[in-house]
Specification:
alpha+beta; 13% strand
Length: 167
């Protein structure tokens, strides 16, 4: 089922891209494109492709899950980065569950650092996939942006998500 969803996501993205008209990558024709709608549509797509499966307090990208993710979702990510309008960046956002402190305490690194390390790890993995852009940023938010309907202490909260945001 998830493969079908990802294939549909890629198909929608390709159709969206094909209908967008031709324009220079670095100098978008702002008059012919509603960039606010494009950013919103891109973020809607990106909600469906998080990297999940981080171990507790770990920032290591889970190899098997990453390989599966990279085959299907990396082309979508690359397509969005390649079409970013001026003034926007592609943010890799690291998240944690709500266990442990947000800031460092004693020998505990804190959720902010762990989430930043996760975002940096996924950004580095994207670069190894050939997705390298100065508009590719990383930010850790700790447990401040939990998934709705999931316990804040659940392992499901340990993830990296993607979003297009203003610079």
């Amino acid at each position: 089922m998830s493969r079908i969803s990802v294939l549909m996501l890629i198909s929608v993205f390709l159709a969206f891209t094909a209908c967008g008209g031709k324009q220079a990558k670095d100098t978008p024709n702002v008059g012919s494109m509603d960039w606010g709608a494009w950013v919103k549509a891109s973020n809607k797509q990106l909600e469906k492709v998080p990297v999940k499966g981080f171990a507790y307090k770990s920032s290591s990208v889970p190899a098997q899950k990453w390989d599966k993710w990279a085959r299907t979702a990396a082309p979508v990510v690359k397509g969005i980065i390649d079409k970013l309008p001026k003034g926007y960046v592609f943010q890799v956002t690291g998240h944690t569950d709500a266990r442990g402190p947000e800031e460092p305490e004693g020998n505990k690194p804190g959720n902010i650092k762990i989430s930043q390390d996760r975002a940096n790890s996924v950004r580095a993995a994207l670069k190894r996939q050939g997705i390298n852009s100065p508009k590719l940023t990383a930010k850790g938010v700790g447990s401040a942006q939990p998934l709705e309907g999931v316990s804040t202490r659940s392992a499901t909260q340990r993830r990296v998500s993607f979003v297009v945001v203003p610079e």
